[in-house]
Structure formats: structure tokens, C-alpha cells
Amino acid sequence: MILFRCDYAEGAQPEILKRLAETNFEQLDGYGSDPYTESAKRKILEACACPGGEVHFLVGGTQTNATVIAALLRDYEGAVAVQTGHINVHEAGAVEYTGHKVMTLPQHQGKMDADELEAFLAASDADVNKDHMVWPGLVYISLPTEYGTIYSRAELAGLQAVAHKYGLPLFIDGARLGYALASPACDYTLQDLKDLCDVFYIGGTKVGALCGEAVVFPNKAPKHFFTTVKQHGALLAKGRLLGVQFDTLFTDKLYGRIAANAIDRAQDMIAVLKEKGIPFFLETPTNQQFVILENKQLEALSAQVGFDIWEPFDADHTVVRFATSWATTPEQIQRLREMLSVFISQ
Amino acid sequence: MILFRCDYAEGAQPEILKRLAETNFEQLDGYGSDPYTESAKRKILEACACPGGEVHFLVGGTQTNATVIAALLRDYEGAVAVQTGHINVHEAGAVEYTGHKVMTLPQHQGKMDADELEAFLAASDADVNKDHMVWPGLVYISLPTEYGTIYSRAELAGLQAVAHKYGLPLFIDGARLGYALASPACDYTLQDLKDLCDVFYIGGTKVGALCGEAVVFPNKAPKHFFTTVKQHGALLAKGRLLGVQFDTLFTDKLYGRIAANAIDRAQDMIAVLKEKGIPFFLETPTNQQFVILENKQLEALSAQVGFDIWEPFDADHTVVRFATSWATTPEQIQRLREMLSVFISQ
Amino acid sequence: MILFRCDYAEGAQPEILKRLAETNFEQLDGYGSDPYTESAKRKILEACACPGGEVHFLVGGTQTNATVIAALLRDYEGAVAVQTGHINVHEAGAVEYTGHKVMTLPQHQGKMDADELEAFLAASDADVNKDHMVWPGLVYISLPTEYGTIYSRAELAGLQAVAHKYGLPLFIDGARLGYALASPACDYTLQDLKDLCDVFYIGGTKVGALCGEAVVFPNKAPKHFFTTVKQHGALLAKGRLLGVQFDTLFTDKLYGRIAANAIDRAQDMIAVLKEKGIPFFLETPTNQQFVILENKQLEALSAQVGFDIWEPFDADHTVVRFATSWATTPEQIQRLREMLSVFISQ
Amino acid sequence: MILFRCDYAEGAQPEILKRLAETNFEQLDGYGSDPYTESAKRKILEACACPGGEVHFLVGGTQTNATVIAALLRDYEGAVAVQTGHINVHEAGAVEYTGHKVMTLPQHQGKMDADELEAFLAASDADVNKDHMVWPGLVYISLPTEYGTIYSRAELAGLQAVAHKYGLPLFIDGARLGYALASPACDYTLQDLKDLCDVFYIGGTKVGALCGEAVVFPNKAPKHFFTTVKQHGALLAKGRLLGVQFDTLFTDKLYGRIAANAIDRAQDMIAVLKEKGIPFFLETPTNQQFVILENKQLEALSAQVGFDIWEPFDADHTVVRFATSWATTPEQIQRLREMLSVFISQ
After folding, report:
1. DSSP string, B83-147
2. Count of alpha carbons within 13 Å of D232, Cβ hemisphere only?
């Protein structure tokens, strides 16, 4: 059985485990006051070309979204997201649990449209009842989106311009950020993000770490953000666990290199899926690909290959997701090819 | 420089790192649906002698306290704790952030007194204004306490009896549970806890793991507790990180064995401190010891030895905490002895 | 200037003011422990034909929605409503502020469709990721809806059947309940509601009271609901203010009689609007009517007659709402007729 | 039976009812956009000598405390209060429900001591763990206190100076503010409060209104405070109910005059209690008096006279509270005198 179900099926990139082992018996202060955490922060700020910024390490994605959003919003504000946004669908209401509404816009292959955002914010602003309503407080997008698509530089700039016009920060959920930046279709780099949004995070969990997300505030973090992190239960006593991992990921561009592997394997996988004549629901420039399988074939194939059931397509077909990762090997793609040959008749 | 500042200065017990490495490239399902997590749960329930119970793995202590407490309480209820209880002091208001009051009782070397609990609950119950007040909803204690002390079996039974008399569950914060159970002064075992409280957790972060706390519900967890964990941002995509660690800790009684090391080293350390004539503020049966240092000596010593400033004793003296851990070596105790000889004049 | 802007433009039905004055110097216990509150509860339960139920008086609609919903839901649950539902749009995120997501369905002239509810709940239930998502916890509808429409008995029964099939209570926001029940189009009575939903409230603010909403639990209120009301800041020290008002409204069927006036005047108003050839956007069986005005005429008319701007219709026209109330007089309708003659050319 | 149980046993000062009746059929805009609300705000700002300030009307005390505190605090902050502070004891955890800890200091006849506040804030500031703790975010006091005592001008200035030194606003809960200001012992006026605190409210419910509290921000209210009020369910559709009441209370100094009646009657009552030889637990300069009754006499007396059981004094005696109000008559004091003669043997 091989899994293309997600990009967190394996443990850690081996260099990370090695560094954890090497530093294991060093006695270090807790809660991120250790030199590895400091070093990781410095390297990340350098990689992001914002030496005056701030980095905070949190443990997981839902936690990071809820913590950052709660820190940026006042009680009367909500987060604007597309309907398929992770915070709106798959985080068990973690944002609402902190007291904030998720205000939704339509999605286009997972993306938010700047014109629709403008129309929404303009209408909010013009609404005679606006004092009786939740105030839009920030704009949330994910990069890549839930559908594996990425925003162009112009699209990001457009969203940010609209957000700023209405006084809102733009927050990028980068749980899979590496896979966006490693895509040949991406026309910007990690260094550009500081100018294209107001806060973003660099996902570790899905890009080679055991756990961990690095929140980057290109300028300053909200006041007492450390305490906010603690209050959200997101502060590790052994901060080194995150520090060592991100220090490793941002040494010799490891993060970018392993993300690139996922993209290369995704391209191989696309070729295999096409070779087998499997229709695409959505071909993306990142590590997630959405294809349409006949239900009977799906069942048979799923005994040998793990993939994600996305949504029904019609009575006889289903949209499924195949994802590669930093860990995917050419051999696994080859094995997928063989299995498709056996189970998917054209 | 050696650190006796806390019990989370080192990384993980080496067997844990070894197992993480060995299983690293196995492709596993996420969110705790992997066989290591399953195995860890089974072993823990066995070790706790409650095969019909439920185990959930969370990442850190503050998070675990807030999540369990919020799951157990209704909106109109609060958690009863002693004033020095971790949830009342050092968790950045995480419990209040979920909407619940922490209702406090006096502490006695960190412990709650059953008679005082009874008096408090009786008074609450008798208060003519009780419908205008927060209802006590659970009793929270930590074991060992913030002061390294432990409850006797009779004390736990007494607290539970009072709690149950008023319909409240007793919740034990076991961030350092191993160090209580490993103490010769402890007159009960892990297997007894299922009868002495209603929910407890087995701390990993401070007893050999990189991170992780295992919440044990001797019977059933609150409904949809998995979703509650997710909502609190406490669910790891790579659940294996917790599963493998606890599976290792509960194989061949590793958890108990490494906890015992901390207790043995603490006994050695007590002997050294006494040998050097350092007065105790509080000598405890677990891994934390509280002594009184002269401020000048304290300063000199602190250049070579890390310890925790607890509180001022008088104008010229300070209470400090020395903690051992699963990782403390006889050599480190010997080194402490040498440093004390140099810096502490009797 | 006459106002048809809303149904809360006047103060109280005069009998209410008279009773407040008559009882003003009686010394009464606070927080609803007075005989008027008791009497009001008894009369309401009788009027609702559920003598074993519970009534609680709260002050306003948003407050009542947030308090009832928070009392019924567990932390992991959300409230299902249509997109135009008051809780989703015009309550400043009060429900989310208590930690709960509002989960939305399409609206049909303000109403929820039972089949769409069924499809939504079935899909939630079938979702493989449901443990990562907010659990639907109750169904919220308003009666009449935001668009002045009412559910038929069959529609309510259908919604309740679906809700119950999935274990959810059906909650009716009755801020304008009187106007639904007084409509000739309504095929059920106040006495039927106990069987058609699980909790509802009888709006006072918009039907003759100065303030106040009577929440009716046909069976039992959630545990410690009194404390929940207090915690939400919804408990009046002078509970008599609500008690006397509702006692008056439910003496000699006053509530029903004054609600009927709004319906009678609405019928008169519909006739006048039709006579003047004003196109309807939505003609409803209750006290709110939605018509389409030319923007220029709208402006002129609005100097003499108050009405509510609802939404743009096209570049040159706007949907506006005219509402009657318990206080609307035939003379006011006649005056509207005159003003329409002056300002609206056909 | 006469009640001295509280200061909200009667309805409204008759002039208020009269004005409500006189204006009852005026058609007014909702949510406080009516001329009476505007007028009331203007008169209050004038009475408070802060014409550039802002006034907001809310419905009740608990609601006002929770709303103002939530508006002033960031998520990581708590409210500092004395242990007997209303928000800490008798508001069903409403402040914690909004996510904020109530941080307590000792009380001295209900009052907070500036030196103790200073010591607390200094210790918080110096705590090496402060980033792991709730940050003090505002100072809450009540005036008069729960024990009917009042702060001197010097005491208020002292508290404010300490609060400001640490960057915190001072918030005065004035649910009974009139009774403090009307006391001969009070060495400041309503006009002074703008300089002695940062926000306060003028209680209506306990000083002659049916309901209502007027929050005064001497400068500006927190951003979007109107929306915050709505979100807390504290905004009345018929804002006139509050506007007319406060407009009346602040016409011809009615508020001050009726408050003075309570103080005059309290002085009469003190004389009567002393005449009957009843020992005082606490004699105060405002409308609440605390005396010690023998339990047997208490029982007998309570059949004829309503008073509030405060707390046990010893096995045979109880502390009880007698309160006068704006409505208390000399005849009622005389009646109390007679009843004491009958039931209390000296």
C-alpha cells in the first residue's frame, strides 16, 4: 500500500531527525529561549528578506490560524475568507471558538477574487446597518489554496491593495507554502511575500517537519503575541523541538529543496495519470492533483493505493485527490503507474 | 553550565528518537489514525488498568488543561483549584479564555485540602445567591503539585469523595505525573488512579518526550472530544509524533523507569544540598527541591549552575528551585556538589 | 412625518404603561421573583398549552438568540440558519462571540427549506471529515422571517422532523411572532407551537412592549438557564419591568389583539400601495411589505414618510420596506395614501 | 411587609413614568437614534462637565460591566478588582465568559487599597514569568462598594495614579453612583469624576429608573463601541426607553435629588437602629447599612420586614443588610422602628 492521500504521511526529513538527535542532550532553556530557536528565527527572517521582522513558532496549522487571527482582530471584527477556506470548513470552528465570525466569499478553484473582495468590503462599508454587523477585520487566504492552486503575484498584490484600502491586513495561511513557492508557475519568491501580505506562516508539518509552523510578521508582531501564543496552548516547553527543526529546514535551503521534490514528483504523477487516460477535475501547479475516477475502479484501486475522496462527481464518478510530498520517491510514482494499469481500465 | 532549572532542559529519551527514526518513512494516516497511536493507547489503558477507558494525545500542558476543562464544563461552570494551581497562575488565562472562571482555594505546600474544598462547595451550595454565581463544575489538582509535593492515597480519595458528593469530577493535571508515581513516598500506583479521580493526564513533555500529554478518561471521554481537541488547535496532523513517543514510553515500563531516575537523582541532590548546609524551604519527595540561598552566593553560583528563582525569602535571601529530571546524571549531581563547594560558603 | 420604517417606532401599548404605573410603588423582590412575573409565566404557559413548560423573560432579541443558542449548544456545535437569518447578519456576531459558528443554508423568501436542511445534515453526517468540522447543534429559524413570510404548519413540521431525525432541536426566533400568528395565512396557533418546535420566544419589543422577549421551553429549560441568562447580562434587577408587561400582554389576549391590528393595517396598506400602482417586490401575509420605488420618487417621498431602504433593485429602482405595527392607525394609512398620491407618479 | 432588602424594590420615579407616557406615541427611530436619547446624552455630559465625552446607554449592571471591560481589554489582559468586587462574585462569571480573568486584591470594607494595587502591579511587572501570565489590563472598582463604603477623592486619585503609572485605565462601576455622590461624606462631585477615572457609569436601575445604566467615557469610547454593545445583546431596539428615562433623571437634577432621599432616609434608619441598640457590623455613609442580628430575632423580624442576609457572624448571630432607596419614605422608617420594637429585645 502506498499513500498519496496527503503530504503528511511520513515523519520528518532525515536531516531533521539527525539534528534532533545530535542536540538531544544539550541542556537548553525552555519556551523558545534556546539558541536553535534564535538561529532559526534569524535564518527565516533572512530567507524572507525582512531582518526587522518577527518570527514565532507554533505547533500546527489550525492552532496557528486561530491564534494569529485572534491576535489581529478586535472582538467586533471577523475574518474574510473564501467558502472553502480551511478556517471556514475544516478547523472545527476554531476561529469562531475565539469569538470571531468567518465571513465568506465565493471561491474560484480555491482562490479569492480581488474584485469580489472589493465589492464585499465596499458593500459592508456602505451598509446602513453596518454598526449592527460584524466588521471585516482581516483577509485570510491560503497559499496554495485548498485546491492546490496558487495566486499570481498580481493577484496577491490586488488582494492586498483592496485589503489595505479598507484598512485590513492580509494574512496568508502557508501550511503548504513551500509547495507554492517551489512551483514553476509561481512568479514570486519567499523574499517577496513580505511585500505582498502583512503576515504569513511557513508550514513545517506538511513540508518535512514532524510538526511546526513559523509565523512571520514582516514588521512587528501584535503586542504580547508570546502571551497570546501561550494562552492558545500553542507554546511548547521544549521550544527546541520547533527551533531545531526550522533551523535545519532553513539551513542550506533545505525547505525549498524538499518542497521542489514534491513538485517534481507531482509533475511525474500528472504524466502518469494522463498516460492512463484519467480525466482531471483540476490539474494544479503544486503537489495536489484532482482527478475523476469511476466508482468501481476507485474501490478496487483503493485497496492498493491511498488517496483522498474529495467529493462526488456524478452518480458513477468521484473526484479524488492525489498528493505528493517532500518524501515522495520516483519509485512510488512508478508503483502508482503499475497499480493504475491493473485497476483502471481505459 | 549545568541546568537544574526545570525538567525539560533536554530533548527526548534516546529510545524515543530511535523509534521515531525507525518508523520515519512508514506511510501512516494522520490525526492519530496510525497503528502506533493505537498501540500507545492500548498500552496506556493496560498500564492504567482501565481497558474500557479512552486515551487522547495532546501536545502540551496548558493546552491539555484548557481543552479538558472546557470539555468537562458547561458555560455556567468554573474550575476549582488552589491559588497556586498552574491554571490559575502560569497559563496566561487559557482557562478563562475559554469562558470559565478559575475558583480558588488556599494551598498547603501546593495541595488542596479536602475539608476546605468541602467547606467551599457547601458554602456555594448554601449561598442564597448561587444562581447569580459561577457554579463549581470540576475540581482541578496537579500531581505532583507546583511545589513538588504529592497527595497521599487517602488525600486523593478524600478530595474525590467531596467532589463526587457535589457531583463534580476530579481532574488531575499530571504534567509531571511520573515523578509522583516514582516517589517512594507515593502510596498508590498508576493503576490506582482510575479509582482516585475521573480524568487525568500522563505528562510526556517533562518526563522524557519531546512533547505530548496523554489524557486518560478511565471510562468514556466527553462526547466528540476529538472535535474539541481539534477546535483547541491541539490535534497534530502527524499524530504519529505523539503515538510513537507514548508507544515507546509505555513499552517495557520505560516511563516509570526514567521517572525513577529523576527521583533517585533528587535524593542524591538533597544529600548534597544538606551536606553543604543549605537550608531547605521545602524538601519534597519528588524531583523539585526548594532551598534558600543568600543573594550574593546565588549570583555567583548562577554563573555556573542554572536553577529557578522562586520567590524572595527576605531582604538577603531567595527561595530557589533545583529540579532533576529523567535525564539527570550522577555526574551532574557531582558537578553541582563541586560548584556548591566553590560558591556557597557555610 | 409618519414612520413605516419598523414595528418599534412607538413606545408601549397604553395598557402596559397603565399597569406599570399602577404597580409602581409595590415593593417587589428582584430578578423575576415577583408575583407579576410568576403570573405572566403562568398565563403564557396556559396560552401556549404547555403547563409543564418553562418561561424565561429576557430583554431584547439579539440577546435572547445568543443566550438560548449558547445554552443549547456544546462548544463543538453550531447553529444552522439561512443566510439571511438575523443571527447571521444583523446581530454583530453575537452568536460567534459566544464561540459558535452560524452554519448557513440558502433562503427562499427568508425561509429554510426542509429538503435543503435534510441534504445539509445528511452531508454533514456522511462527511468523512466530520470530526474536523463544526457539528450542527440546532436549527434556527425566524417566524415571521426577515422577509415577513411565514412557515405553514406542514413546513414547520417538516423542518422539525428533519431536525429531530438528526437529534437537533428546532429554535424559533419569534421577535415578531405575534404578527405571524395573527395572519389569516397562518394555519396554526400559539398553542400548536409547543409541538412544532423545541423552544421559541414570544417577542414583546416589536409587539407592544417597551422591551422584553418571553422564551418558552415547552418542556424544561436547559439546566441552570437562570444563571446563563445572568451570565449573558440579560437578567433585570427589576424583573417586574418584564413581568408586568407580559402579564398585561397575556391578559384578555391583548398580545393577539394588538398583533391583529398590525395585520389589518398591513392589508389596508397593501391595498393602498396597489391602488397607487406601486410594484411589489414581495407581498407578505404579515406586517412587512416590500415594494419597488423609483429612486427619484423615493427621495421625495422619504421627506414625508419614513420607510426602510432594503436593497437596490436596479440602477434606477430600490426595494423598500413598509412595516405596520400594533400601533398603526387607519389615519396613518390614509396619510400614506395621500403622500403616495403626491409623490409617486404612475 | 416592608422591604429594606435592596434599592430596586420599587418601579420608577413617577416623573419617569409620566414622561414615558407623554412621549409614548411619538414615532421615533430605534437603537438610540431618537431625540430623547440625544438629549439625555447631552445633559449627562453637561452634568459630568465633559462635553467632549461620549455616553452610551446599556440596560443592566452585569451587562455593562462585561461590555465595558471586554471593550477595554485585549485578549491577553484581565481586570483587577477586589475579591468582593461585583464582577468577581455576583455576575455569574460574565467577565470570564468574555474570555478575561478577574485578578483579585484584598478588600477593605469593600475598597481597593492603592498601595496594594501598586504592589500587585509592580510584582506583575517584575515577574520573570510575566509573559506566561495574564496581563493586568484595567482596574475595576465600584462606587459605592459592595459594602456601601465610598472612596475619598484622595483615594480615587491614588488609585488612578497607580493605574496610570502602569498604563491601565480605571473603571468605576457606578450601579449605585448616585448614593455615593449624595452622601455628605463624599468630597467630590459628578463633575469631578472625569478627572478621577477613565470610564464610569451612572446607575439608573438602582436610582429611580426601571432599567438602564449610562456609561460615560470622558473622552472617546473605544472604537466601534456601539457594535460591541450590540454584540453583547445590550442594545435596545426601543432606545427611547433608556433615552427618556435618563433625559428625565438629568432634568432639573432629578437624579441627584432622589439619590439624596436615600441618604436622608439611611441616616434616619441608622438613628432608629442605634436607638434600638442593634450593633452595627458596618455603618456606612451611603444607603446600605450592615447590622448584627440574633438569629432568633432575625427570624421573627423577617416575617414583617424584608432585609438581606449578608453572612453568618457567629453561631448565634448573622450580619444583615438594610438598604434605603430613592423611594424610601419617612413612614417606612417609622414602620421599621415599630417592628424593631416588637421583635428585637434589647
Report:
1. TT-HHHHSSTTHHHHTT-PEEEE--BTTBPPHHHHHHHHHHHHH-TTGGGSPEEEEEEEESS-TT
2. 31
With a cut of 60, say whether residue A111 has pLDDT above it: yes
Same domain, B190 and B230: yes
State the DSSP H helix or E strand holding residue A82, giving kind and residue range, or none if neither. Answer: strand A77-82
Q: Which of C253, C287, C321 represents a domain boundary (last residue)?
A: C253
Q: What are phi and psi of A314, to 5 degrees?
A: -150, -170
Extract the residue ranges of chain B whose pLDDT is less than 70: 345-346
- Condensed to tens digits (0 to 9), the pLDDT of residues D242-254 reads 999 999 999 999 9
Q: Closest residue of A to C62, CA-based?
A: A132
Residue pairs spanning A and B at CB distance below 8 A = 169
**If you compute the radius of gyration of chain A from its CA atoms, what whole number of angstroms results?**
21
Q: Which of A302, A303, A304 is nearest to A318 (CA)?
A: A302
Query: What total number of domains does chain C contain?
Result: 2
Query: Looking at residue D192, what DSSP letter applies?
Result: G
pLDDT attached to residue C346:
56
In this complex, do A224 and D133 lie within 8 Å of one another by their Cβ atoms?
no
Query: pLDDT band at residue A100, thresholds of 50, 70 and 90?
Result: very high
Together in a domain, D207 and D80: yes
Q: Which of D156, D160, D154, D147 is nearest to D85 (CA)?
A: D147
* Nearest Cα residue to C210 out of C324, C60, C328: C60
Q: What is the pLDDT of residue B346?
A: 56
Closest CA to B146 of B195, B108, B203: B108
Residues of A whose CB is below 8 A from C99: 93, 96-99
For residue C228, is pLDDT > 90? yes
**What pTM value is reported for the model?**
0.97
Which residue bears the cell 500529554? B213
Rounded Cα distance, C171 and C190, in Å = 15
Same domain, D243 and D266: no
**Pair D204, D57 in one domain:** yes
Same domain membership, residue B212 and residue B131: yes
CB of D252 within 8 Å of a chain C CB? The answer is no
ipTM score: 0.97
pLDDT at residue D191 in the model = 98
pLDDT computed for residue A263 by the predictor = 98
Say if residue C222 is preceded by a cis peptide, omega within 30 of 0. Answer: no
| Domain match, D247 and D302 both | no
Beta partners for residue C58, in sequence order: C213
Which residues in chain D have Cβ-Cβ distances shorter than 8 Å to C327?
25
CB contact under 8 A, A131 and D226: yes
Q: What residues 21-50 of chain D have any CB closer than 8 A to a CB of chain A?
A: 31
CA–CA gap between residue B66 and residue B91 (Å, rounded): 9
The residue out of D228, D252, D276 marking a domain boundary is D252
pLDDT at B344: 81
- Determine the pLDDT at residue C224: 98
Average pLDDT of chain C to the nearest whole number: 97
Please, which residues bridge with residue B136 across strands? B78
Position A346 scores a pLDDT of 56
CATH code for the domain in which residue C110 is found: 3.40.640.10
Q: In this predicted structure, what is the pLDDT of residue D343?
A: 86
Contact C97 A78 (CB under 8 A): no
Are C164 and C60 in a shared domain? yes
Q: Are residues B280 and B228 in the same domain?
A: no
Domain containing D185: what range?
14-252
> CA B170, B171, B177 angle in degrees (round to 5)?
125
pLDDT per position as a tens digit, B48-65? 999 999 999 999 999 999
Task: Give C83→chain A minimum CA distance, Å.
Answer: 11
Residue A311 maps to which CATH number?
3.90.1150.10
**A73 CA: distance to closest CA in chain B (Å):** 15
Provide the pairing of β-strand D213-217 with D54-58: antiparallel
